[in-house]
């Protein structure tokens, strides 16, 4: 049984997942740009 409140868990999830998604998009865009330049 998790002792972490739902709110804290949601905040943690958001803090970890959102940057991962944004970072993934940024990385994909950067790679696509470099590939396009080459």
From TrEMBL:
Task: Give the stretches traversing the membrane.
Answer: 12-37
Report keywords, A-Z.
Answer: Cell outer membrane, Membrane, Periplasm, Secreted, Signal, Transmembrane, Transmembrane beta strand, Transmembrane helix
Annotated signal peptide: none
Identify the Pfam families for this entry: VacA (PF02691)
User: Domain of life of the organism in this record?
Assistant: Bacteria
Q: What is this protein called?
A: VacA
Q: What is its main location?
A: membrane
Q: Give the membrane topology.
A: Multi-pass membrane protein
Cellular component terms (Gene Ontology): cell outer membrane; cell surface; extracellular region; periplasmic space
Q: Which InterPro entries match?
A: Vacuolating_cytotoxin
What are the leading ranks of the lineage? Answer: Bacteria, Pseudomonadati, Campylobacterota, Epsilonproteobacteria, Campylobacterales
Q: Where in the cell is it found?
A: Cell outer membrane; Cell surface; Periplasm; Secreted
Q: Which gene encodes it?
A: vacA
